[in-house]
Amino acid sequence: MRIDVPKFPAVITFLTGLIATVLAVVAALFTESHPMYMEGAQKLMLSWSARELGQGLACFFALFVLRDARAVAVALFSSGVREVVDFVDFFRVPGTPLRLYFVVGISSVLHSAALVVVLRKIRSTAASWSGQEAP
User: Fold this and answer.
1) What sign does the dihedral 79-80-83-89 (CA atoms) show?
2) pLDDT (0 to 100) of residue 34
3) Which residues, in sequence order, are CB contacts of 2 under 8 Å at separation 6+?
4) Which of 17, 4, 6 is nearest to 82 (CA)?
5) Angle at 7 between CA 50 and CA 4, to 5 degrees
6) What local confidence, expressed as pLDDT, does residue 11 receive?
7) pTM of the model as a whole
8) HSE (side-chain half, CA atoms, 13 Å) at 59
9) Is 94 helix (H, G, I), strand (E, B) or coil?
């Protein structure tokens, strides 16, 4: 049985998919345009863009193909982990623009909030299927 995706997590998942896919394509085509690009790091940028493309397509797949809150929860969780790792990595790279800290920080909060909403929906639906009241 399918669990419907609440609107807020659906919007965050869609935006994550869209932004990640666009960033991946731009980074793959124009590696020097990325704000964290370092001279001679084309392979690194292609690796980063592949990671972004995978994340973006996973979000779209969860939202439009699987259309289930459980799949969206996995996509949001993986996006959140990616954001936390990026945030920590910024401290290792000297000269990281301050705006990237804010963007990733806000994105992490949005992913976390959307994940909480979708997990509550999953929990309440599972409880109703078993005939119990959700905690």
Assistant:
1) negative
2) 65
3) 67, 68
4) 17
5) 90
6) 98
7) 0.87
8) 27
9) coil
Q: How would DSSP label each residue in 1-39?
A: ---PPPHHHHHHHHHHHHHHHHHHHHHHH-GGGSTT--T
What pLDDT, on a 0 to 100 scale, did the predictor assign at position 93? 80
Spatial contact of 55 and 97, defined as CB atoms under 8 Å apart: no
pLDDT (0 to 100) of residue 19: 94
CB atoms under 10 Å from CB of 118, counted, come to 27
CB burial of 91-109 (b: ≥16 within 10 Å; e: otherwise) equals eeeeebeeeeeeebeebbe
Give the position of tokens 């779209």: 60
10-residue mean pLDDT series, the chain (135 residues): 95 96 89 66 80 96 97 96 88 85 92 97 91 66
In this predicted structure, what is the pLDDT of residue 46? Answer: 81
Q: Helices 42-60 and 7-29 sit at what angle, rounded to 10 degrees?
A: 150
The reported pLDDT for the residue numbered 38 is 64
